[in-house]
Amino acid sequence: MTLAESISPTPSTSGPIARPRGWWPILALTAFTAVASAAFALAFAHNPSLAFGSSTPIDPGDQLYLKLFVVRSVALSILTLILVVRRARIALIPVMVLLAVNQMADGFSGIATHRAESVVAPMIQGVLLLACAGHLIATLDRPLRRAAIGSWRS
């Protein structure tokens, strides 16, 4: 079986809501990104020089930003992991988009601090999460897809 066949959006027939076969790579990538986001946030909280450079003194505004970054990343990561474990696809889609935006915002803050290593990984994770959210939308049954997309429009 090829990778394309293992993640094909062919739905299974068990249960009241058909679940696609092989969507575990999407869940694994989402869980990995959530754990990585929380781990980096906690590492930055423990050693702020990782985020702002070792020679730069940290001013109170940066400390506040760092605290908000840690809280935001850890909260989104916990929510994402709960939804991954529960396999709640419709609820997971907007949370994946929020986590992707969070990752990309971290990448843009890396641009502001002129640290290339803190730009590339969050941007790649954000793009992959958006692709995964799009894949989950594509694998939903037509009524569920309309409900998921319609809830974002209102």
Automatic annotation (TrEMBL):
Keywords: Membrane, Transmembrane, Transmembrane helix. It comes from the Bacteria. The chain crosses the membrane at residues 23-44, 64-85, 92-113, 119-138. This is DUF4267 domain-containing protein.
